[in-house]
Design goal:
heterodimer, A: Rossmann fold, 3 domains, 5-stranded mixed sheet, 19 helices, B: 484 residues, alpha+beta, Uridine Diphospho-n-acetylenolpyruvylglucosamine Reductase, domain 2, Uridine Diphospho-n-acetylenolpyruvylglucosamine Reductase, domain 3, Alpha-Beta Plaits, 4 domains, 18 strands
């Protein structure tokens, strides 16, 4: 089973409470089953027969997970309960026990692998479906490319495999990754700039895991802009920067911090602490499609911790987070690219 | 009493509970109940490890207000259903396990924080708030509860109240019972009562103290007002290595008798210093006993306290000074001891023989427990540290550990071995002037010793229980009270 690769997490997390306070879903549902401890204990129970994938509620809990990885980030041992969660989803799928909603979503992403290209050159911008749905974010990105005096060709559409991986469909995710890599090769892309942190994570971490080699260097848009050393007409002023889970807990990347420093932003600490992820399920990529009510609860949890929910300017890493915080949390959130573009 | 799920009574009760707290806040699914069937007690952990199902509740109920708790209690009383309050579920004594089924009252939805009263330096909150979240909220306002136990990240403040918890700064700021101003409690019959608003009075016996440590057997604590403290200007630590545990104990006791008022002190015996402290700090402390202490408050006063404390440690007891750095190792790593890899773990068998005694008895208690464990259970290792110090004595955090291959493969034999260690060690502690226990509580694990401990006072305790909970529905089988 895929879970066997995460023996450390199974055996150590199953009775450990030390990251309980950071369980985003547990903190909004007030449940035990939505914590790393109980998930790991139930996964261990698969071996002894105490638990089984026939239990739809157990499987449902596995697909409720936010995948923020803040437990791994917090843990002194950095046990990868997040990796365990992805592995057990793959086992669920292989056992044919995926919930119907998951199957439908996976089918949609499996069918979707036709990319479109506009423009020329070996510099490309991958405009993923989530980012493309936000006109303001798209306009900001275009403004930033113009300021950097580059005109990348734009790749849109198609699944690159991240959602499929998160849902536990590993062969399909790998197939999507291979197709995308081949597509980039055909297009002669040497540098690929990517807006969505989840997509960056897929390309930088998932693809090597699948054994898929990319023909190009991958840069996040925030990182690309930070490297461009643009001149800004004004400073960003006072903002609350919410660390994106993919940036902080998955990749340990400082690109957002670097960019905020260039923008001379005065970053105020959000909430009561810097341990919680304050996420809306962006690590789970499609949590908003599977569990919109849960994403609403997560956003409301974040909003309840804002100093002044109506006035505070929140800077987030993805359109996913922005959309959730604006729609459900009624917060004034912008992506880091939008903030950057507004300072030009 | 189990309510059989196939019976229509199950649906009747579920409907009433849903009416009380909302259908979304009543869980009856196996997956939800599973999470409440294992706490931090070794027996259910071992039971699960061996593939044995642990006793489960019939209903997991998440009340959102005191009034909802009251409604649930009235339903439970009407149908004589056991009610087990559950906070973070991180207790090590089995106190929150639903061993007779019934209702687990998961309090975490009651997590409201009402803010710091900056005139009185108090804070009011519902008891389901996770203690770390409460502390973060207070910190944001420039204050601290100063209640910082290792379980702060998982336990609720209600859990600490229910079993008289202790944090690492207890030596200055006290145990949780020293921090409480007043409580709101729902009695087993559903009455909502408030204890007096201040803890110092001459208006009869203190009902606040009655409910603190009652482990959910007398009612449900739903709201608390706690003292808070401004964050100190300075907090400094210093550590020493003494030639042996006895010398270190004398040094520590002398510091307490000096009334210099450290905020924390901790002493590890030679074995724990060598095997555990060294591992957590990542340094080689091969010989001797490690003692750390600290002071906090105004910077100039802290400097003065530290100066006199150093004289005790260095001149009187010839401690080897590890400096401020040696003390900061502990403060920075104080929770690391409890993470997997540093904490003991199934398949090992382990337990904390939490005992407290005055200085006149504490070493006797230590040796009595150590000798009996070493003699009767040669496969077990005994280590100990002294983690909460008061003017009159301190707490012994003694632990026994069996390697996994020395624990019987049969779960019943494993449980019997485990219980035998407790029987021998706890009785040795009580016989030598020790009190079980200082901050973990009694729960299921130690209930059988309560009669020994209370002696002729036991009927008084039982009388209180009977008066408040005549139907015996509140957390049956815990704290030495009857099951159902």
């Amino acid at each position: 089973m895929h879970i066997d690769k995460f023996e450390d997490a199974i055996m150590n997390c199953r009775f450990c409470f030390m990251c309980r306070h950071l369980s985003p879903i547990g903190n909004v549902r007030f449940t035990e089953v939505d914590t790393p401890r109980v998930r790991a204990a139930m996964i261990y129970g698969l071996r002894t027969g105490t638990n089984s994938f026939d239990d739809e509620d157990f499987v449902a809990a596995l697909y409720r997970q936010d995948l923020s990885a803040c437990c791994r980030h917090h843990c002194v041992n950095h046990f990868d309960e997040n990796g365990l969660a992805l592995a057990v989803r793959a086992d669920v799928v292989e056992a044919g026990k995926a919930p119907d909603a998951v199957k439908r979503l996976a089918a949609k992403f499996s069918r979707s692998s036709a990319w479109k290209v506009e423009g020329k050159g070996d510099l490309a911008w991958f405009l993923d479906e989530s980012t493309a749905s936000d006109k303001s974010a798209v306009a900001a990105a275009k403004k930033l490319f113009a300021a950097a005096k580059v005109s990348p060709k734009v790749i849109t559409g198609g699944s690159i495999g991240k959602a499929l991986k998160v849902l536990g469909y590993l062969p399909e995710a790998k197939a999507a990754a291979e197709k995308f890599a081949a597509f980039l090769r055909e297009e002669g892309v040497k540098t690929l700039v990517v807006s969505n942190p989840a997509a960056v994570n897929a390309l930088k971490q998932d693809y090597p895991g699948f054994g898929v080699k990319l023909p190009c260097e991958v840069k996040s848009l925030a990182g690309f802009v930070a490297q461009a050393k643009l001149k800004f007409a004004k400073s960003a002023g006072e903002v609350y920067a919410l660390a994106d889970d993919f940036i902080r807990n998955y990749q340990g990347c400082k690109c957002h911090e670097n960019l905020l420093a260039q923008l001379k932003a005065t970053c105020r600490p959000f909430g009561t602490n810097d341990e919680e992820s304050y996420n809306c399920g962006e690590g789970a990529v499609v949590l908003d499609r599977l569990h919109p009510q849960l994403v609403k609860s997560l956003a409301e949890y974040v909003a309840a911790r804002a100093d002044d929910p109506k006035k505070d300017r929140l800077v987030v890493g993805s359109v996913y987070a922005k959309r959730a915080l604006v729609k459900y949390g009624k917060l004034n959130a912008v992506t880091i690219e939008e903030l950057t573009a507004s300072c030009l | 009493m189990k309510v059989k799920p196939e019976s229509y009574m199950f649906e009747m009760i579920r409907t009433e509970l849903a009416d009380a707290v909302g259908a979304a806040n009543v869980d009856v699914k196996f997956a939800d109940k599973f999470g409440h069937s294992i706490d931090y007690y070794w027996i259910p952990e071992m039971w699960h490890d061996r593939g044995r199902p642990c006793p489960q509740a019939d209903f997991i109920v998440h009340p959102g207000s005191t009034e909802e708790v009251s409604k649930v209690m009235k339903i439970a009383t009407q149908y004589r259903i056991p009610v087990v309050p559950w906070g973070g579920g991180s207790g090590s004594q089995g106190g929150a396990l639903p061993v007779y089924g019934g209702i687990v009252l998961d309090m975490k939805r009651m997590n409201k924080y009402y803010g710091v009263d900056k005139e009185s330096y108090t804070v009011r909150c519902q008891t389901g708030i996770i203690a770390r979240h409460l502390e973060w909220n207070c910190n944001k306002e420039g204050f601290s509860t100063m209640h910082l136990p290792a379980s702060i990240s998982c336990a609720t403040i209600g859990g600490f109240l229910a079993h008289r918890g202790t944090g690492v700064l207890s030596t200055k700021y006290g145990k949780i019972e020293d921090m409480v101003m007043s409580l709101e409690v729902v009695t087993p019959s559903g009455e909502i009562i408030r204890t007096l608003p201040v803890p110092r009075h001459a208006s009869g016996p203190d009902l606040t103290m009655l409910f603190l440590g009652s482990e959910g057997t007398l009612g449900v604590i739903t709201e608390v007002t706690l003292k808070v403290h401004p964050q100190p200007e300075a907090r400094e630590f210093r550590a020493y290595i003494f030639k042996d545990f006895h010398t270190a104990m004398q040094a520590g006791a002398t510091l307490m008798r000096s009334r210099l008022g450290p905020c924390a002190m901790r002493l590890y015996d030679e074995t724990e210093t060598k095997t555990h402290v060294s591992k957590v700090f990542g340094i080689d402390l091969d010989k001797g006993a490690y003692l750390v202490f600290g002071f906090d408050g105004r910077k100039d006063i802290v400097a003065s306290q530290m100066k006199y404390a150093r004289e005790i440690m260095e001149r009187q007891f010839k401690g080897k000074d590890l400096g401020a750095k040696g003390g900061e190792w502990w403060w920075e790593n104080k929770y690391k001891f409890f993470y997997p890899g540093y904490m003991f773990h199934v398949p090992q068998a382990f337990g904390t023989l939490d005992t407290v005694a005055d200085f006149a008895h504490i070493e006797k208690v230590y040796w009595a427990m150590k000798n009996v464990v070493n003699k009767e259970f040669p496969d077990a290792r005994f280590i100990g540290h002294f983690s909460h110090w008061y003017e009159w004595g301190c707490m012994l955090y003694a632990r026994f550990i069996f390697p996994g291959d020395k624990v019987p493969p049969n779960e019943r034999e494993a449980a019997a071995l485990y219980n035998a260690v407790w029987d021998k060690a706890i009785r040795a502690a009580i016989a030598n002037g020790g009190v079980i226990n200082e901050h973990h509580g009694v729960g299921l694990k130690l209930g059988r010793y309560v009669k020994d401990l209370y002696g002729s006072a036991m009927p008084v305790l039982e009388g209180i229980k009977k008066q408040l909970d005549p139907n015996g529905i509140m957390n049956p089988g815990k704290l030495g009270f009857a099951g159902c």
